[in-house]
Design brief:
4 copies of one chain form a homotetramer. Chain A is α/β, with parallel strands linked by helices and 337 residues long. In chain A, 35% of the residues lie in helices and 17% in strands. Chain A has helices at 11-23, 47-54, 109-121, 146-159, 173-178, 194-203, 217-229, 257-264, 273-277, 283-293, 319-336; strands spanning 2-5, 28-31, 38-41, 59-63, 83-85, 88-90, 98-102, 126-128, 163-166, 183-186, 207-210, 235-239, 269-271, 297-301. The first copy, chain A, has an 8-stranded parallel barrel, surrounded by 6 helices. Chain A has a 4-stranded antiparallel beta sheet with strand order 2-3-1-4, covered by helices on one side. The first copy, chain A, has a two-stranded antiparallel sheet with strand order 5-6. In chain A, helix 3 packs parallel to helix 4, helix 6 packs across helix 7 and helix 10 packs parallel to helix 11 (319-336). The interface between A and B is large, with 43 and 42 residues.
């Protein structure tokens, strides 16, 4: 159940209703610190209580969510939410989509440092890079681990950018916190790893939640709901291509889902065209399409020297290509946002 | 095999090579009436002949196509091809994508006439509308048939627009020709109806070839190859959404394939976001994304009064929405084309 | 609407109801020549008429179909239907599934004659073989055409087996009838070619309707409904593998759908494991699984000398392999049927 | 690289080669404690060393695996492997597939105890039941946790059956070991949770590895490879349905993959028809098909009173239905194994 108070309802009355719901055994969440308070009870209260609350003079509307997600639903916020990573804001209200750029994997201080400078020069708002790599084969490069976290953060700091990197295991959380990682990425393969989701949520870290390869919109939003229900407050969704019958491209970027997401959730939406395309020369067209479809952020892989990359080199943009793409994204953003 | 002559090679020499290939039993096609002649032999000639031809001083390059399509391949043209429907050109060289707009089905003189006026006012280049409707159920509205062709053409003429409509059976070809239909649409369900493809190709009608619901890129291009091999010279491909596991949208518009198509074929590419979305309010975002991904044309369903539509009303734009979308498409085209 | 009379209701009363429905504008179909008459009105009559009919003393039950198909629904028959091709019966009541065997394509009198003898020796009930081949590429072998029909029928007659072969175009119907083809196969690519379906239905030929590569259960049953609504009386469905993300096999044989079909339709169900597998050594396991899941017939490709086959050789069983498979299918049938 | 010694090669010589490979920096695994030793080096050694080893008189064959998996490949074993859980053996050599039966979730001592008695009476070899439930929604029943492990094990012991249950987090491993859980199930959603795979592998627990909803054959075998490379010695694969476009069933059971698996891996293969079907009355046909396709084990959900089940009740068989299915599976096994 989602209950919207009239704007300006005194906090005391909001707390009164909140306590009433809790006393009836509901788990209650609250949004809207500003003008309008909204309460969500994830266990729907009894019909009689619902009617009673709906008839209060300070309540604008009480509604049952049409979908199983509650805290992730658009109805739980008065406006699309804005996520802050360091000084950067990501959300529907920004004038252009935020560029999240960097190498697939952190390989050395030099490589990630160079990447950071190029990313910053292109106007990126966030630096990305993998320290723990999820690989299909146990024999492939698994990342630099803690050392990768340290190098990534240092590179981000050197250019004043917050950093995002993938987390594979709750055991890695202390290192994420210790090294000041600004945002933990949950990869497609772990989207329904509910143990990991709960642990990250409790840590308070902002999260970039990638969509699973074959996750429906609803499963994805319920994975987001796991995070929100267990404590996450800064959350970005990231579409990265779904698995279909088509083998001419690595994955099929599901941009069709973007306008559906925009009406169903308040969460900001990022798109990662690099993993869907699998080839660098396809990335710009897909990135442009993502912006035009409404993406709030673009996650783009780049590498100062792609041919030397230890993973996913073929899909990494060169610094100059990133620069050009960033300009196009801003121009398109100016039209569609 | 595709053989590119040096620019300026005299026609006589081109014909000499052409006849040589035919005498060896090859079926030969030719493109490039302008500066550079190109020949394609769909049955690869013997290795020795290939070498001999490659060593001719008037031959720039002889190559074996990397993919099974030959006439549809980018290598068979010196530049992306431009299709002319009436006065309208569709292709990568146009400054903005051409809008193909109109109702799902032709229902009455008034409805299609009104649609034509709204489409023209929005700047559409082509009027669309179904006279023969392919329906999943034998009990659903199957279209007005020949009368639909007549009404559509008349509506197109009244506003000076060429018309495109779906063909379901080779028996309908005489009526298409008699009523001056400018372009025959082959629907997703008939993409591999090779009998129909051959018959249309022999008629000489321009074709808009929709991708099958589960057709791979290669199967789609081979369906195009069927048309080209049997006589079609004006051909547009149209992506309209593929079938995936996701049920939140009717189909998943595969924009990921657009940059792949742009490098692999010379054919112009249209995108139909209406059928993928299934809901009108999702159409503009997908249409914008299609333009940004490189679409040369947009096929958009509209209806003067969607609630009265006999088929697919929920996905039809209102005239005002079409107008706004057309403006956005032009603005985006100016940036990305 | 489906209306079941009490067993033994006099024909006169049945006709009375039938005429009443027709007079109200309904298209009415009838099944149950035996003990119990059943009427289906594909246009649902008015509520008042429904109630009136339901209250008749000779009517057992009036129901609205839960799904869009009517004539294909299980409710329209008192028992699963049995299809007769020549002397052979195919349906749920047979003690073991009927084997439909033969080469992918008819290549010569010798090849198809040999195949027919091997098929008969293995206990096959129907001989199959393609005269018109639907090929993805316009440059691949397209079949022997009319000559193929003649050779196939002669081979079938020489061993006393009815024959089934694919039809690609309504223009081929006269030749099918002239050469006494016992059953027309509609291939996966033409499952929604409604013009072809209607033409075949009017010819009265029995039909084997393959499922489209990406056709849902409902679309498949509606394609069957097209045939039944336009005159087909002998109809077999054939599952042949759907397109999924998995590329380790050519298609994924959807046996999960078999028990669903068995409860939803009265039509007999065949399974073609050869096209799904794409490799002969995988066929026996899939054929066994199909029998165990409830298949009423197995369509198996075989060739006297697979390495010489002009199409799909790698998936053809050797005569000895076919013989062994036939024995296993009978043994399994004895347990599960 | 996989190196097969001649049968009877003295252990000393095997160790010599093993050390030689290790000294060259290879990670070496060994199988074949019996008549024939086989070594696998997951990092392919230099070409010169390969040649040297291939020319040894005690070496029968040195081969490079055709696929990325090594330890899971059929070539790494002389015969399909047999997994032992308690007294029960699972593998291709058993006369009939092993039945793994029990409720979706452990709900109470009474419910799981009753289930255990019914499972044992039906001839099941393993008792299953979930203590930790992976649920799409954070608000759904998440299982009894440690108490569930205790109840499940006690129920298994009371009827002399080993038990298998799903693990969601490495933190649960101590409880799994403490309560004597015989086999840890890795669910579809965690198939590529490589952190979890590594932790379980190090624990030495036998594993039942379910296939991910959209995992290719290769990704699944590489997940198995993660387990084998990190210490797992008893491993069973379990097909449970893949996600496709078809919505008439919950998932599509991919039995097409079974004969492919049988030639590509030595690991035993289980099939879970309950989760694919989603409805109890579809389960028997799918279970029979799985046996006929070559399944070594069947994982079947049952419940003494399905309508009271707290999760997945609609797909649980009644005790009598389980009994009948078990008999059919044995009869089919006698024919196909």
């Amino acid at each position: 159940m989602i209950l919207r108070f009239l704007p300006g309802t005194p906090e005391e009355q909001v707390q009164q209703v909140r306590e009433r719901l809790i006393s009836e055994g509901c788990r209650v969440h609250r949004s809207g610190e500003g003008a309008r308070a909204i309460l969500a009870a994830v266990d729907p209260p009894a019909e009689a209580l619902l009617k009673e609350l709906a008839s209060r003079p300070d309540v604008e509307r009480v509604e049952r969510p049409r979908y199983p997600e509650v805290l992730a639903s658009a109805a739980f916020r008065d406006a699309p939410s804005v996520v802050r990573l360091g000084q950067v804001e990501i959300g529907r209200s920004t004038p252009s989509p935020v560029l999240i750029a960097g190498p697939c994997g952190v390989e050395s201080a030099e490589q990630v440092g160079e990447s950071a400078r190029f990313a910053a020069a292109a106007g990126a708002g966030v630096l990305r890079g993998g320290a723990y790599k999820p690989r299909s084969s146990p024999y492939a490069f698994q990342g630099l681990g803690v050392e990768g976290l340290r190098l990534l953060k240092r590179a981000g700091q050197s250019v004043g950018l917050p950093v995002v990197t993938e987390i594979l295991d709750a055991d890695q959380l202390p290192a994420f916190l210790e090294h000041g990682i600004d945002c933990a990425q949950v990869g497609a393969r772990n989207m329904q790893n509910t143990s990991l989701l709960k642990a990250i949520a409790r840590s308070g870290l902002p999260v970039l939640l990638k969509r699973g390869l074959a996750a429906t919109l609803e499963e994805w939003l319920l994975a987001a709901e796991y995070l929100l229900a267990h404590g996450t407050t800064e959350l970005i969704l990231c579409e990265r291509g779904i698995r279909t019958f088509e083998t001419a491209t690595r994955f099929t970027l599901d941009l069709t889902i973007l306008p559906v997401l925009a009406e169903r959730t308040h969460l900001p939406i990022a798109v990662d065209p690099s993993h869907a395309a699998g080839k660098a020369h396809l990335v710009p067209a897909l990135a442009r399409a993502a912006v035009a479809a409404g993406a709030d952020a673009l996650a783009i892989e780049m590498h100062p020297r792609p041919v030397e990359a230890r993973s996913d080199g073929p899909q990494a943009l060169l610094p100059g290509e990133l620069m050009q793409l960033a300009g196009e994204a801003r121009a398109l953003g100016a039209i569609v946002r």
